[in-house]
Amino acid sequence: MTPRLHVAPPALGASRIVLDAADSHYVLGVLRLRAGATIELFDGVGGRYRAVLCVDGRRQAALEAIEPLRKTPRSALQLSLAQGIAQGERMDLVIEKATELGVSAIVPLRTRRSAVKLDDARAQRRHAHWRRVAAAACMQCGQDWLPDVSPPLALTQWLDMLPPASTHGWRLMLDPGAPLALSSLDFGASRAQARELVVTVGPESGLDDAETATLVAAGFVRVSLGPRVLRTETAGLAAAAALQALIGDF
Asked: What domains sit in the chain, N to C, each tagged with a CATH number?
């Protein structure tokens, strides 16, 4: 399999791209590629390119002979996952696997019951880290569309940023106690119309009653994923896979 590398779109207009220290280390030190090797580039917005590696030094790499390849289609399902910030590597897992599943936007939510409390400096570092996790997942799975990973947002802050419910397709809130199952929803013409969907998942301890009421008031439908209670890092991913099978590109 041809190795892949994410490159920002503005850099792709040049005939030669000099890689930064991190990408040079990845190409030369991790993949152990040598001059003349072919690398596939993607710009995160659907573009895919072929390039040839040249080496300027022991720790510096560059790419030349850049040519566009056929663009890949994006999933018809535009799915946003609002995930209550989970602890440790669980959040990394959600970002990585949601990217592989074709989720188009990921919102780390600050919720009342979340055990993770981030000050501004730490939130900026985690946001940068999560974006790198998403880019690495795209590199591995062949996904050419980089999901929009937002900085951590409070629930009400995020809701204020959403377009009106009447113009934004389905809004779903995962709740193991909900009387309505995801499989029972009638999406009607959603497959043909490529409707947008938003799925919200609470952190390890779930959303509290006030947060649940706020989401319901904002037009979110409480749905369950069946008879089992799933962990926070599993629930959103299971919903994304099910929705891709129902109205997406699975």
From this structure: 4-69 (2.40.240.20), 78-247 (3.40.1280.10)
Do residues 182 and 92 touch, judged by C-beta distance below 8 A?
A: no
Question: Which ranges of 49-112 would DSSP assign to H, the alpha helix?
Answer: 89-100
- What SS3 class is residue 12? helix
CA distances from 175 to 39, 79, 200, 228, 230 (A): 44, 18, 9, 11, 10
User: For the whole model, what pTM was predicted?
Assistant: 0.89
Q: What is the per-residue pLDDT across 13-53, written as a single tens digit (0 to 9) for each?
A: 678 888 989 899 999 989 999 999 999 999 999 889 999 99
239, β-bridge pairs: none
Helix (H) or strand (E) holding 132: helix 120-141
Q: Write the secondary structure of 208-230 as one string of H (helix), E (strand) and C (coil).
A: CHHHHHHHHHCCCEEEECCCCCC
Cα dihedral value 115, 155, 94, 8, nearest 10: -120
The predicted-structure confidence for 191-239, as pLDDT tens digits, reads as follows 555 578 999 999 998 999 999 999 999 999 999 998 889 999 999 999 9
